[in-house]
Design goal:
The protein is an alpha/beta fold. The protein is built from 9 helices and 6 strands, in the order αααααβαβαβαββαβ. It folds into 2 domains: 54 residues, no CATH class; 116 residues, Rossmann fold, CATH 3.40.50.150. It is 49% helix and 17% strand. The strands form 2 sheets. Strands 1-2-6 form a 3-stranded parallel β-sheet. Strands 3-5-4 form a 3-stranded antiparallel β-sheet.
């Protein structure tokens, strides 16, 4: 049913994960029988899409895994940018980017690294996800003030513009990242 409505196949997902997410949707709708929920999904495309979004585990944060980003900065980026010239383009791909925090974190890390190079190649980061709603948030690049816990003050000042209770990624960083819908499995 989800394949028909959302064009995404969840047959390889863990059954325990599927069951938990379906149970959560059933509780929200106050349905106690699985048959009732199946009927609901068949009749209500909006509910099928809600379950689809529930199944997409969109765990993301700026610099979510600090050790991984430290390794990127210390080991990977020096090798990646070695012998690059201003005419070169370094391309990277962030698969399953959700709402864009990790893709923008990578762009920020690259910008910081490039600041120390005499010649700077162009950087293009392709960030993909299957959730169009998440991608729209990523493209907007506007995040709640809670990111203050994830992003240092120096980075907030340099790479974000504060607007009310939200932080928006600066154009220089947004221009490094291209967000697009893509299903890794198909």
């Amino acid at each position: 049913m989800l394949l028909k409505t959302t064009n995404h196949n969840f047959q390889h997902y863990k059954s325990s994960t599927l069951s938990r997410r379906i149970q959560r949707r059933m509780q929200l709708l106050r349905l106690s029988r699985a048959d009732d929920y199946v009927a609901r999904i068949r009749e209500d495309a909006d509910e099928a899409r809600a379950l689809f979004r529930e199944l997409l585990i969109g765990v993301t944060a700026f610099f979510r895994d600090p050790e991984a980003f430290q390794s990127l900065a210390r080991i990977v980026l020096p090798k990646l940018f070695e012998n690059r010239t201003p005419g070169d383009c370094v391309r990277m791909w962030v698969a399953g980017c959700a709402t864009g925090e990790e893709a923008y974190s990578l762009a920020i890390l690259c910008r910081e690294y490039l600041d120390h190079l005499p010649s700077r190649p162009e950087v293009q980061i392709f960030a993909t996800d299957i959730d169009e709603r998440a991608l729209q948030i990523a493209r907007n690049g506007s995040y709640p003030s809670g990111i203050e816990e994830q992003v240092s003050n120096d980075r907030l000042k340099r790479f974000f513009v504060k607007r009310g209770k939200r932080y928006t990624i600066v154009k220089e960083i947004r221009d490094m990242v291209l967000f697009s819908a893509h299903n890794l499995i198909s």
